[in-house]
Specification:
Number of domains of chain B: 1
Low-confidence stretches of chain A: none
Order of helices and strands of chain A: HHHHHHHHHHHEEEEHHHHHHHHHHHH
Order of helices and strands of chain B: HEHEEHEEHEHHEEHHHEHEEEEHH
Distance between the termini of chain B: 43 Å
Structural class of chain B: alpha/beta
Number of strands of chain A: 4
Helix content of chain A: 55-70%
Mean pLDDT of chain B: 84
Oligomer: heterodimer
CATH class of chain B: Alpha Beta
Radius of gyration of chain A: 23 Å
Number of helices of chain A: 23
Largest interface: A-B, 79 and 76 residues
Distance between the termini of chain A: 12 Å
Largest sheet of chain B: 10 strands, mixed
Structural class of chain A: mainly alpha
Helix content of chain B: 25-40%
Strand content of chain B: 5-15%
Shape of chain A: globular
Largest sheet of chain A: 2 strands, antiparallel
Mean pLDDT of chain A: 95
CATH architecture of chain B: 3-Layer(aba) Sandwich
Strand content of chain A: under 5%
Shape of chain B: globular
CATH topology of chain B: Alkaline Phosphatase, subunit A
Number of helices of chain B: 12
């Protein structure tokens, strides 16, 4: 097993043969440094105005339906743009994907492509740094506020949804806070409302409860940033984030104890633990990881991938719940296996150039190199050996058990 | 427990590690046709994921505290379907209202457990393990399955992933995907068997990936796979942040009915409906969801009459008594359970929780859910409740014709 191949598989969306060779030459440490180097936040795609925000109060039913249609087209444009960014390579978009699954927000309720894109840009801007600025930005993130009903959280009747999930799922984990902390947190966040016209959240003073609270052991008047700071300084916070990073980048085993001043440092430390190498082959690929790896390695454009992702149950911007997508064996069902067999055929059918290289006597080894698989087990090797047609061979490799994990 | 997702529990629970959850084909279930004691009853457990608002399901409309606490979320007098004793059913449930009138639906008030947990994921673990103190790694019906010999065909689910409640210590229930399977061109059963052979020393994840191919060979007569063609993505359906990924309830219940009518060996069916986490604008959305429960369930009850089938409906918690400003409700505690079917005495049972004597804004439960489980285990499954419920000795008797005196 090559150490750098393992690193590339986990930190990026499926390495190509060329990337593996270059990384082998550079060595593990230089590769890790290069992958974790900060990158500029990209210019977002121009979506035009939000057609629903522009609707007047007296809009007709037809106008509303047309606005919803063009809003859905904008969402589709954001998804395509993001898939293109993922396919372009590098580790930054993998981290953006991690944070998307962590602060799991679905466009199904948020609806606005602009707000989903703005949240994604927040992940890019702050995701690699310290968690303080990220949590401060996310507590006032319009998409998250709409998703978890912060919009309706007022002094008169606080709505606890956002405050609870922020602590349970996003910053601390169960056991680190009490029910009283949930109620106090909700009060601190009262009055933060999204202005649909500007697409920004602002504090509406008359809806805000500015009375003192007791929150996570601290008494006094707290504002949103004060709450964010309490969360990130809590002793449970960094270990919680490190465990979540390990679950997606490492494996199902217990997370090694690492810490660091920011997410990049924690990720670097996790990749340098002795345990990291031992996780090869223990992590089930999420459908987006599986598909993006395939299109990158086969040299295909990611366009047209949305239907495959939908069939596999992981559509970007549409996590199933605030808990994010499942991990591990939940992705390995008879139904998903069948879908990978079908999708493998579709992808292989489009990958003429890649398939043409799978005709020699070494074609089974060439297939492993193409797909950055460490090697085939005897059973898979035997099954592949019987396949002469290069396209069918490629399709079977893509659907194989070895390619379902990494 | 570090909760990544609800499903994380399933993976951590050893369902996939120790006793691997089997995937079976409907044909394998139907093959057990006639293979059961004619007197044996069947339990159908319906899980409502997301925390259904009990107070707007079985509505205490005669209590002035209800309208006072619920403001715009409250149903006006006359709107819900009256059932007497000061209660009414949500207007989305005409079918269950009829069954109640016929004496076939039992409502158990105020079902919950001590020291309620308001996390979806943790509270669902508590209901599914029946271990409120410290949820373990086995589900209550999984432990029943252990005690009943462990044949996975005895306890099945039509959901894509086995719910934790069917995971035992030594055995686990099976998932049975419905629908139809066509293998892609050129993919032969031999190829699938080849890819599915176990390899020595492989990781549990890789072993599971391979085992899916063997499962596929066994169940390829009847399995659904998500189509690759575009279809309506239902993006205007009411969304909430906690959903259940399962086929529609009517499809799941139709499969149960087919199995029951074929007299198969299965004694326990787990089905589910998701989407009840309505923190905002909950009134119409809940009514629409309850209608999705009501219509298929009433039809199922009619179709199954006389076949020894008992249905139990629960959710991981109810909602807070007071509405929030969003015309929704936050996570709460006790909630009513529904029981219906042969041997169930219809009507309102148990003590309705007070709307004013609250525990930190939440209802105090009046019946422990383990009392209801115990009755289902004894009366429907004919087993010893204490053995399955860690020595629990309570048991609700009133709604069960055989037990009530």
């Amino acid at each position: 097993m090559s150490e750098v191949t393992h690193l590339l598989r986990r930190l990026t969306f499926g390495p190509t043969t060329g990337e593996v060779q270059a990384a082998e030459k550079a060595g593990r440490d230089a590769t890790l440094d290069r992958l974790l180097r900060p990158v500029a936040v990209p210019e977002p795609p121009d979506l035009g105005d939000d057609p629903v925000a522009r609707l007047g109060k007296d809009a007709t039913r037809d106008q509303r339906q047309a606005a919803r249609r063009s809003q859905r087209e904008q969402v589709s444009a954001v998804v395509q743009w993001w898939l293109g960014r993922m396919a372009a390579g590098g580790a930054a978009e993998k981290l953006t994907f991690f944070w998307h699954g962590h602060w799991a927000t679905s466009v199904q309720k948020v609806r606005s492509a602009h707000l989903m894109l703005a949240q994604q840009q927040t992940f890019r801007r702050y995701g690699a740094g310290g968690t303080g600025p990220l949590v401060r930005a996310m507590l006032r993130d319009p998409a998250l506020i709409l998703w978890l009903d912060g919009q309706k959280n007022t002094r008169k009747a606080p709505n606890e949804n956002l405050a609870r999930e922020v602590m349970e799922l996003f910053t601390l984990g169960v056991g680190a806070y009490t029910e009283d902390d949930v109620k106090a947190g909700a009060r601190v966040l009262t009055g933060w409302q999204v202005d649909r016209a500007t697409g920004r959240a602002r504090l509406v003073a008359k809806r805000h409860d500015d009375r003192p609270v007791t929150l996570l052991g601290r008494e006094g008047v707290l504002d949103l940033d004060g709450y964010a700071d309490l969360l990130v300084r809590h002793e449970a916070h960094l270990p919680f984030i490190a465990r979540r990073l390990w679950a997606r980048y490492g494996g199902p085993s217990e997370a090694p104890a690492v810490t660091g001043p920011d997410t990049t440092a924690m990720l670097r430390a996790l990749c340098r633990t002795p345990e990291f190498g031992g996780t090869a082959g223990t992590l089930v690929k999420q459908p987006i990881e599986w598909l993006l790896g395939a299109v990158r390695q086969l040299g295909l454009p990611p366009s047209g991938s949305e239907l495959i992702l939908k069939a596999l149950g992981q559509v970007p911007l549409r996590p199933p719940s605030v808990g994010g997508w499942p991990a591990g064996a939940a992705w390995l069902t008879t139904s998903s296996t069948l879908t990978r067999l079908r999708a493998g055929q579709k992808l292989a059918g489009r990958a003429t150039a890649a398939a043409d290289r799978l005709t020699g006597s070494d074609r089974i080894e060439a297939l492993a190199a193409l797909l950055a698989v460490d090697g085939w087990s005897d059973r898979t090797h035997a099954a592949l050996k019987g396949i002469k047609d290069p396209r069918r061979l490629l399709a079977t490799g893509l659907a194989s058990p070895e390619y379902a994990v990494h | 427990m570090d909760t990544l997702t609800r499903r994380r529990f399933l993976i951590a629970s050893g369902v996939t590690a120790g006793a691997a959850a089997a995937t079976l084909g409907l044909r394998e279930i139907l093959a057990t046709s006639g293979d059961r004691d004619p007197a044996a009853k069947t339990l159908v457990l319906i899980t409502l994921y997301g925390g259904n608002d009990g107070l707007n399901t079985v509505i205490p409309h005669a209590d002035p505290a209800y309208a006072a606490a619920r403001a715009d979320l409250a149903y006006a007098p006359g709107e819900p379907l009256d059932v007497g004793d000061g209660f009414a059913l949500n207007p989305g449930m005409p079918g269950l209202h009829r069954l109640l009138g016929d004496g076939r639906l039992a409502i158990v008030h105020g079902v919950g457990y001590p020291r309620p947990n308001r996390s979806h994921f943790q509270s669902m673990d508590i209901w599914q393990t029946a271990q409120p103190g410290r949820p373990g790694t086995t589900g209550w019906l999984g432990r029943w399955l252990d005690s009943a010999g462990g044949d996975p065909r005895l306890a099945i689910s039509f959901e894509p992933v086995l719910p934790p409640l069917l995971a035992g210590a030594k055995s686990a229930g099976a998932t049975v995907p419905g629908g139809e399977l066509r293998l892609p061109a050129g993919v032969t059963p031999e190829l699938l068997s080849g890819l599915g052979a176990p390899a020595p020393g492989e990781s549990p994840a890789l072993a599971r990936a391979a085992a899916c191919f063997t499962d596929l060979v066994r169940v390829r007569d009847l399995i659904s796979s998500a189509p690759l063609e575009d279809e309506d993505d239902d993006s205007d359906a009411p969304a909430t942040a906690t959903g259940g990924a399962a086929p529609p309830l009517d499809q799941q219940l139709a499969l149960v009915a087919r199995c029951v009518e074929a007299n198969v060996a299965t004694r326990v069916y787990s089905v589910s409906l998701g989407g009840f986490d309505l923190h905002a604008d909950g009134k119409d959305a809940q009514k629409a969801l309850l209608a999705k429960l009501d219509k298929p369930l009433a039809a199922f009850a009619d179709r199954m009459a006389g076949r020894g089938v008992v249905v139990a409906v629960y959710s991981e918690f109810g909602r807070r008594v007071r509405a929030n400003a969003s015309d929704g409700t936050d996570h709460g505690t006790a909630s009513p359970m529904f029981l219906l079917g042969d041997g169930i005495r219809g009507g309102l049972h148990g003590e309705p929780p007070s709307l004013t004597d609250l525990d930190d804004g939440d209802l105090k439960h009046t019946t422990d859910f383990r009392d209801v489980y115990a009755a289902l285990l004894a009366d429907v499954l004919g087993s010893d409740p204490a053995r399955v419920l860690d020595g629990w000795s309570g048991r609700m008797r009133e709604p069960f014709v055989n037990d009530a005196s």
